Amino acid sequence: MRFYPSLFFQRIWVVKFEHGFRGVQVKINKSILNRNYNCSIFGGTIFSAADPFYPVLFHQLLMHKGYNIIAWSKSAQIQYLKPALTDLYFTIHIIDDDIAACERELNTIGKYLKVYPVDIYDKNGQLCTSVLNEVYVRNLNFKEPTPND
Questions:
Q1: Domain CATH number, residue 59
Q2: Where does the chain have alpha helices with state H?
Q3: pTM to 2 decimals?
Q4: Is residue 145 one of the residues assigned to a domain?
């Protein structure tokens, strides 16, 4: 994903995916390409960095378990707390309980919807941005039970 144009040109860099796609570390490099008129990182870049990773992780996790799914960010809420004057960093993890809940709902109702937080920090460890990302996952093979079942 490092060279995916939507991330690459905004200087969003995947540092590392955790084993089994249970998490990801991301860096947003401050550069002339994403600097706003206040010399901080453009808010759209920060929002773009937080948007895709939970759906990507769920897609990869569940695909490797044999599910035929689609996953995306259904909605998001962002709060800019401090200007991003340095590179930014965030790490997200998907825990076993969330994977189990997702599988349970995919198998019983065919879809999973949950809000996940993404906290984004500067190089000094100061929280600059908080995002709430609503993730939607649909099981494409789910069939509604018929009354005769």
A1: 3.10.129.10
A2: 5-8, 43-50, 53-64, 96-108
A3: 0.90
A4: no
